[in-house]
Specification:
alpha+beta; seven-stranded antiparallel sheet; two-stranded antiparallel ribbon; 7 helices
């Protein structure tokens, strides 16, 4: 099962963003550049409404907001909100919701009757205009590099324009973040992961006694991996009742 989450990029520094989110129940605001912040909220909070949060945030901060929505690691939407209104949408896989059925002869077809070819490259991403996303990036961000990331294809050192389709929606988002000058790891870190980092830093390690060995090993490695990653998120500002994320201890920093 893949990842599903929403995150926000705000074309504003951390201070105004935090001030605009004082009513948020639980989440984190992260400075990712001198003029850009990432916001990762608890999507299970009772007051969590993506559209209204993005709309209100763009008006309160007087800055554009980019909502990144990942659906089961299959599709990435990037929606730019300005003055409370969505003004642009990118979709990494426009064909994702087209139904495919077999006709009377066993041929796979879309609803409009066109034939489905599993070997075909598929429809290119829609809304892949880098001009909409460059204002969120660092001043040095390259329009060409951002455009390549938005193609939803993995880079190929030999031929960057001929990479294979990306394996995951969060991978596409990670490439876009990197092209904008930000850490790729944000794309692989929904709220639950940040919450676990914060809680595990202050809670004793549980006993794995009695668990199947393979499960216990996996749980321990996951915990160690999160501990090592805390260094990337110590600048995250806790919102609402979220816990601070402390840096890893020297012993944790040596985990590989």
């Amino acid at each position: 099962m893949g990842l599903s989450y929403e995150q926000f990029l705000v074309a504003a520094p951390l201070g105004p963003v935090v001030a605009a989110l004082t009513a948020v129940r639980r989440g984190y605001a992260i400075p990712v550049g001198r003029r850009t912040s990432a916001v990762i909220l608890d999507e299970h909070a009772h007051d969590y409404k993506v559209d209204s949060i993005a709309s209100r945030l763009s008006r309160d901060v007087e800055a554009d907001v980019c909502v990144a929505s990942v659906s089961d690691s299959d599709v990435l939407w990037l929606t730019v909100v300005r003055d409370g209104t969505p003004v642009h949408e990118y979709c990494s896989a426009p064909d994702h919701d087209r139904k495919i059925t077999k006709d009377a002869f066993g041929v796979l077809r879309y609803e409009d009757g066109t034939r489905f070819d599993p070997e075909a490259p598929g429809t290119p991403p829609s809304g892949a205009d880098p001009a909409w996303f460059l204002p969120f990036g660092v001043p040095e961000a390259s329009p060409h590099t951002v455009a390549q990331a938005l193609t939803a294809r993995e880079s190929d050192p030999a031929d960057p324009g001929a990479g294979k389709p990306h394996a995951s929606a969060e991978g596409v988002y990670g490439d876009v973040l990197a092209a904008l000058g930000f850490p790729r790891g944000i794309a692989f870190t929904p709220f639950a992961e940040l919450d676990a980092m914060a809680r595990e830093a202050v809670e004793p390690e549980p006993s794995y006694e009695g668990l199947p060995e393979t499960f216990a090993i996996a749980q321990r490695r996951n915990r160690e991996h999160r501990a090592a990653r805390r260094a990337d998120f110590t600048s995250a500002y806790p919102l609402g009742d979220a816990l601070p994320i402390p840096p890893p201890t020297p012993s944790e920093s040596t985990i590989t």
